Amino acid sequence: MNVNSDEHVPLSPRALAERASQFTFNRNIPLRNWLRTGTTLLKQACIYIREKDFENGLFLLYRYAELFFHCQTHPEASQYKKELHEFYDTVNTALEEITLLKPLVQESYDKQVELLKRQKIEDENLNKFLVSKNHDVDKIPQQTNHSISRTHSSWTVDDLKLYPASSTKSNDETHKAHSHTLDFSYPSATTTSSVQNSAAGIPISAPRPIPNVPTSQTNGPPPLPNKPLNKLTSQFLHFSPPSEVPEKQTKSFKIQCYTEGGKPLRTVFLPSSIRSTFLRIAKPNTDRRLETCGILCGKLRQNAFFITKLVIPPQEATTDTCSTTDEAGLFEYQDKHDLLTLGWIHTHPTQTCFMSSVDLHTHCSYQLMLPEAIAIVLAPSKKLSSGIFRLLDPTGLQTVVQCRKPGLFHPHEGRIYTSAEPPGHVRELDAPLEVVDLR
């Protein structure tokens, strides 16, 4: 669905539920991939709820439940009875979470609608007044002392050089003092003048922002239903009652990139040292003309992804291919450390920097699980030594999903993939990178 991020239209819980159901469930995709996608959705929902972004959390819980009903109809369902039973148990708990979240989101929605109505009336009255005074309508200010701010609580990549809110230095002075170093930490800037409210819109991908609600106009979210917090709430989501919600709400990163089909892509922050680090790890294989692959893992924070770990899984390789040999062990490690799979990286020791047909089919699984997932290709012996890619969405993604051509290497018609580097959704960041070698 194509959503214009500039249309600041709040969404009710009912609208969120309807949008959550609007995705294509392709039964040709292995069920294990869909089950892994479900795990990814639930992890993201939990993070959004911990950050008090209830709209996004509710949207993803709706999507999680919707996915379960589709998975039951998959041709391979009989082979995954145990996994589907576990999925069922978690969905029941997620539905209880939805019951808790709906009144919070409804209250926020009602207040946003009311504020937008007031804003419209104020703008119309102001226009009438200025026109009656023969003022040029084109000179009508967009902001007045009486109007509600439309400024998004958002971040750009430049805002990563953050400073404590209590600092007395000016922005220019602080920027000079920190211009050469950046002690990395997850952004945690707060604002005392507004409460962030984001409405989910695109399947799986992050939603667009909607207008802020000034704290002076709200008395906080409504009380939760009079019932004990359930297992998922207290242990996994770490849900806090409204009385524990801090007045200062964290900001979220602004959506700056969209797919070819109009879906928003959340920003992926990549440690700038990842290429040189991975090339050192891959050198023994590169010297033997063998490929090496690694998994890009990280966290979701404030509507953006941060790659924090480079995991080297057990693998087997040739001069033109590389594949993991213990997928279950890799997933177990990621789940144990609460990591999201944000993409993968591999070398082309004998070829140029491009996405082969094998690479396209491999990356398809990553991008179906997470639309923002990226593929990094390193070709150290060539002039164009590296690239960061994603499949075109929807055309490239659909082409690969529907491809049934035999053999590892085969051509695909048309343009299939594109660069994810700026102006794409990937930004490099001077941040630490942990390497975990599971071989």
Automatic annotation (TrEMBL):
<keyword id="KW-0378">Hydrolase</keyword>
<dbReference type="Pfam" id="PF01398">
    <property type="entry name" value="JAB"/>
</dbReference>
<dbReference type="GO" id="GO:0120113">
    <property type="term" value="P:cytoplasm to vacuole targeting by the NVT pathway"/>
</dbReference>
<feature type="region of interest" description="Disordered">
    <location>
        <begin position="197"/>
        <end position="224"/>
    </location>
</feature>
<dbReference type="GO" id="GO:0070536">
    <property type="term" value="P:protein K63-linked deubiquitination"/>
</dbReference>
<comment type="similarity">
    <text>Belongs to the peptidase M67C family.</text>
</comment>
<dbReference type="GO" id="GO:0043328">
    <property type="term" value="P:protein transport to vacuole involved in ubiquitin-dependent protein catabolic process via the multivesicular body sorting pathway"/>
</dbReference>
<dbReference type="GO" id="GO:0005768">
    <property type="term" value="C:endosome"/>
</dbReference>
<keyword id="KW-0862">Zinc</keyword>
<dbReference type="GO" id="GO:0016020">
    <property type="term" value="C:membrane"/>
</dbReference>
<dbReference type="GO" id="GO:0032511">
    <property type="term" value="P:late endosome to vacuole transport via multivesicular body sorting pathway"/>
</dbReference>
<dbReference type="InterPro" id="IPR044098">
    <property type="entry name" value="STAMBP/STALP-like_MPN"/>
</dbReference>
<dbReference type="GO" id="GO:0008270">
    <property type="term" value="F:zinc ion binding"/>
</dbReference>
<keyword id="KW-0482">Metalloprotease</keyword>
<protein>
    <submittedName>
        <fullName>AMSH protein</fullName>
    </submittedName>
</protein>
<dbReference type="Pfam" id="PF08969">
    <property type="entry name" value="USP8_dimer"/>
</dbReference>
<keyword id="KW-0479">Metal-binding</keyword>
<dbReference type="GO" id="GO:0061578">
    <property type="term" value="F:K63-linked deubiquitinase activity"/>
</dbReference>
<dbReference type="GO" id="GO:0043130">
    <property type="term" value="F:ubiquitin binding"/>
</dbReference>
<keyword id="KW-0645">Protease</keyword>
<dbReference type="GO" id="GO:0070530">
    <property type="term" value="F:K63-linked polyubiquitin modification-dependent protein binding"/>
</dbReference>
<dbReference type="GO" id="GO:0140492">
    <property type="term" value="F:metal-dependent deubiquitinase activity"/>
</dbReference>
<keyword id="KW-0833">Ubl conjugation pathway</keyword>
<dbReference type="InterPro" id="IPR000555">
    <property type="entry name" value="JAMM/MPN+_dom"/>
</dbReference>
<dbReference type="InterPro" id="IPR015063">
    <property type="entry name" value="USP8_dimer"/>
</dbReference>
<dbReference type="InterPro" id="IPR037518">
    <property type="entry name" value="MPN"/>
</dbReference>
<feature type="domain" description="MPN">
    <location>
        <begin position="267"/>
        <end position="398"/>
    </location>
</feature>
